[in-house]
Amino acid sequence: MTLDQIKPGYRGTLSVVGGEGALRRHLLDMGLTPNTQVTVRKVAPMGDPIELFLRGYVLTLRKEDAAKIEVVGVEKV
Amino acid sequence: MSGLFALAGNQNSGKTTLFNRLTGSNQHVGNFPGVTVEKKEGRIKGIKDAVLVDLPGIYSLSPYTSEEVVTRDFILKEHPTGIINIVDATNLERNLYLSLQLMELGIPMVIALNMMDEVRASGNVIHVELLSQKLGIPIVPISAGKNEGIGDLSEVVKKMMTEQKALPKLDFCTGEVHRAIHSIAHIIDDQAKQAGYPLRFAATKMVEGDRPTMEALQIDENEEHIIEHIVEEMESRLHTDREAALADMRYGYIEALCNECVVKHQETHEQIRSEKIDRLLTHKYLGIPIFFGIMLVVFWLTFTVIGQPLQDLLGNVLERLTMLFSAFLQDIGVSEWLRSLIIDGACNGVSSVLSFLPIIVLLFFFLSLLEDSGYMARVAFVMDKLLRKIGLSGRSFVPMLIGFGCSVPAIMATRTLSSERDRKMTIVLTPFMSCSAKLPIYGMITMAFFPHHSGLVMFGIYVLGIIVAILSGLLLKGTLFRGEPIPFVMELPSYRIPSGKSVLLHMWEKAKDFIRKAFTIIFLAAIVIWFLQSFDLYLNPVSDASQSILAAIGSVIAPIFIPLGFNDWRASTALITGITAKETVVSTFSVLTGATTDLQLTTALQQIFTPLSSISFLVFTILYMPCVAAFAATRRELGSLKGALLTACYQTGAAYVTAMLVYQIGRLLIS
Question: What is the chain B residue with the closest CA to A19?
């Protein structure tokens, strides 16, 4: 499952962080590394981007970018 | 002994507040060479000859954004005495990620552990001494907002100046990455020394495949081959790629470190509070209306309730002063032309622009509040989808919205955008948002031609401006600003009450900026226009405006506007004077047509324009290059005169094409 498909109120563990170049590097730098637990908190009013909670802080990214991140073990918070 | 210190840290870590605390109000704002990244410098209070440079807020030392590159270059090339790394204690893991990278640079460093008051208040514990021991660098717990621990930090900084101890080598890498870094370090030892790069940093960058570092070190093909081989082997053993391996290693080290040094029971009060506030402010249905509500209140307070009276007051005061000064000049017998130059040219020009000062200061007061409280990040979150199609992100929305009030603060507000590409593009597009100074022109034209449909015409013009901005965005995205936009991966910081001092300093900075502009470029422009208006081609003073050089220029360029449906020297002259300030278009028409009442002006305009050509004139007026004050702001924020001139040319070109289309299509429809 990819991160963009996860509904608000669910969390999972990152398995693969895809993308390339600046985007990928930026995702990794912000702490979206494999085995990190991420909660999807919210979807913006116009349906995009999404709001995540990880490593004790709140991060937002676009769905098209979230689609490059794979998540396992999705469960309700 | 003098010292140069660099203040580095994540965005939203309280860096600006700490900078203000350490330096007081003696600051100097400029740009880093070659980029539009702001560079703030100040002397550290209480320490002799210690200069502090505020580096941009970044999350990593990767080579992708100009902010990151600037930080790297500054530290590698300026060899600062030490780095003050500000770390948000409520968000330790992600903040330490940058710290580890900074430590690789081998420069003495101190961590200022900010927001410790919030950590303590929530009952969480950070064992600062243990953390400091593990990292091998001093750590000072502070609260920049509450002014706690700043003295302790100063003491450590003072010590760094006298001792200049090298950073102990911290080996936080493990296993395969460790092996790769050390193998590569052996190979590039000499090159790193020659280039003046810290070895550890250089080796890590080789593993990451960092092009700029490879070039700086002049790695030859053979060595690059060996390095590539080492890294590939590391990748195959770890079953991951180089970038992920390094990020994973750093975060792995940090997680282990935090497990030992941090006792976290719960989120801080601020984090819990933020989640609650966001239930409303980024609510699915209420989020957008609330945002527009907030902006409406800001505009209403700025332009109506507080701004207008202040603007009128300042305008009156400046007018009085000018009159007094004029009388004084007459008394001491200064010649008439010199008095006219000083009063009509310089004083009137500058004071008409200066009267905008209250509005600009007020807008920045509110903007600082929105920015420092953390709300601006939410605006970007809420509005992002709308701006994405033209290649921008939600962050650009607020400057564009301010553009409807006044382009000058709007362009100045782009400084908070974190991507240079977005910043430049927003600067180019913002003036298409019709500013309030253009309202009198709408009033004049609609009064003369569309007295019963003025609302419709105005609405149409506003919409047209937005459409041109969107089309320009699409065009620029595909041409000048091609290349990958910086990804929109943004932190939503906790809401915090802004520090009064930061807000005031920010206002003062913008006010200073604007006043400087008023007395330089605007001053100059006012004098040039005065000269062109007051003399004829043989440099004789003129009494009739139609004889002036300006009118002559107007006549020469008038035929350019034939495709737009008007060919009248008064129209083209008004467009030239409009560059000083858009309202001037109206006064120029009055002067040149000799009209003293609205009715006379209407009659005169009806001779110059047809209803259709009046529309194309209006279209041209709202879209062509903004006033000198906005031009000066563009120049400053782009950091180049050439860039500003190109921008003005583009805007004028877009205005010409759009107005021509409006006229020609309109003509087809009518006939």
Answer: B487
Q: Residue B73 in 3-state DSSP?
A: helix
The residue among B249, B381, B420 with the most chain A CBs within 10 A of its CB, best to mutate, is B381
Q: Do B486 and A22 touch (CB under 8 A)?
A: yes
CB nearest to A51's CB, from B92, B381, B484? B381
Nearest Cα residue to B135 out of B160, B164, B101: B101
Sequence-distant (6+) residues with CB within 8 A of B67 are: B37, B56, B57, B58, B418, B420
Comparing CB atoms, the residue among A23, A45, A48 nearest residue B487 is A23
Query: What are the structure tokens assigned to B425, written together?
Result: 């593009």
Residue B31 has pLDDT above 80, yes or no: no
pLDDT of residue B483: 66
What is the Cα–Cα distance from A69 to B443, expressed in whole angstroms?
54
Check A22 against B487: CB less than 8 A apart: yes
Q: Do B156 and B179 sit in the same domain of this protein?
A: no
Q: Specify the DSSP element, H or E, that contains A9.
A: none
Domain count, chain B: 3
Grade residue B354 by pLDDT with cuts at 50, 70 and 90: confident
Angstrom CA distances, B575 to B446, B522, B529, B582, B657, stand at 18, 17, 12, 9, 16
Domain match, B80 and B7 both: yes
Residues of A in contact with B490 (CB under 8 A): 59-61
Q: Which residues of B touch A29 (CB under 8 A)?
A: 59-60, 62, 97, 247
Q: Quick check: A57 and B94 CB within 8 A? A: yes
List A9's β-bridge partners, or say none: none
Contact B93 A59 (CB under 8 A): no
- C-alpha–C-alpha distance, residues B452 and B443, integer Å: 12
Closest Cα partner for A66 from A4, A14, A1?
A4
Per-residue DSSP letter, B143: B
What is the reported pLDDT for B1? 64
Same domain, B140 and B210: no
Nearest to B364 by CA among B565, B184, B503: B503
Q: In terms of residues, how long is chain A?
A: 77
Token pair for B418: 């974190």
Read off the pLDDT of residues B49-82 as tens digits, 9 standing for 90 and up. Answer: 899 999 988 999 987 777 888 899 999 889 999 9
> Which of B122, B142, B163 corresponds to the end of one domain?
B163
**Residues in B 279-298 with any Cβ partner in A closer than 8 A:** 282-285, 287-288
* Cβ within 8 Å, pair B381-A49: yes
Q: Looking at the domain assignment, is residue B464 inside a domain?
A: no
pLDDT tier at B484 (50, 70, 90 boundaries)? low
Predicted complex ipTM: 0.96
End-to-end CA gap in chain A: 17
Contacting residues of B for A31, CB less than 8 Å apart:
93-94, 97, 251
Look up the domain containing B583 and give its range.
Answer: 513-670
Give the pTM: 0.86
* Predicted pLDDT of residue B502: 84
| Sequence ranges of the domains in chain A | 3-76
Helical residues (DSSP H) of B392-499, grouped into ranges: 397-403, 407-413, 420-429, 439-449, 454-478
Q: Do B381 and A60 touch (CB under 8 A)?
A: yes
Q: Where are the alpha helices (DSSP H) in B520-548?
A: 521-534
Architecture of domain A3-76: Roll (2.30)
CB B489 within 8 A of CB A31: no
B550 and B650 assigned to the same domain:
yes
Tell me what pLDDT residue B507 has: 87
Which tokens in the block code for residue B523?
């001053």
For residue B303, being part of any structural domain is answered with no
* Confidence grade of residue B440 (pLDDT, cut at 50, 70, 90): confident
Provide mean pLDDT across the span B493-500. 91
Instruction: Compute the average pLDDT of residues B532-558.
Output: 86
B192 and B80 inside one domain: no
